[in-house]
Design goal:
Shape: globular
Radius of gyration: 16 Å
Oligomer: single chain
Number of helices: 3
Structural class: alpha+beta
Number of strands: 6
Strand content: 15-25%
Length: 163
């Protein structure tokens, strides 16, 4: 297996400069997943959103993976083609990844539990309250997921509340 291409990144908005929005630009490598997770972890720590960290890290990894694996091979651009943007709203954390591809996200209907790929959007759907995509002009798209920032009250059917 060949080694991934060198990653370049650029944090366009530091967490200190904008307390409600932070962005990270990535190009062309799977190594960017670790960079995106580290950026997400640091941002959520600054925003005191530790309760959202596990879900946000998973969602960000899946969004970035989809962009790198599915969008980049279909584009010729090389200058910061993928942008991760985290936005803190009143009751939600919005995780969004913008890529230069016009190909729509594919929500696979595969029923084979042993498939290695094709579950990313299912995972995003399971962890978020809402998710979707928006076309970008003149080209590209943004795939986003909204995670709740408030703790949900435990219910009688919650396995955690039974312990």
């Amino acid at each position: 297996m060949s080694s991934p291409a060198q990653i370049r990144s650029h944090e366009s908005v530091s967490v200190r400069d904008s307390p409600r929005t932070a962005a990270l630009y990535l190009t062309g490598s799977r190594e960017g997943f670790a960079q995106a997770r580290d950026f997400t972890q640091r941002t959520l720590d600054c925003w005191s959103l530790g309760r959202c960290t596990d879900d946000a890290l998973t969602v960000v990894t899946e969004l970035a993976a989809n962009a790198v694996l599915h969008a980049l091979p279909h584009t010729s651009t090389n200058e910061f083609p993928i942008r991760l943007r985290l936005t803190l709203r009143r009751a939600h954390l919005v995780c969004a990844v913008t890529d230069p591809s016009d190909s729509l996200p594919v929500h696979s209907r595969a029923s084979d539990a042993f498939l290695e790929h094709g579950r990313g959007l299912h995972i995003i759907e399971a962890l978020s309250e809402h998710w979707g995509w928006t076309r970008r002009a003149p080209v590209g798209k943004t795939v986003w997921a909204m995670l709740p920032t408030r703790s949900r009250p435990a219910t009688d059917s919650d396995p955690i509340s039974d312990t």
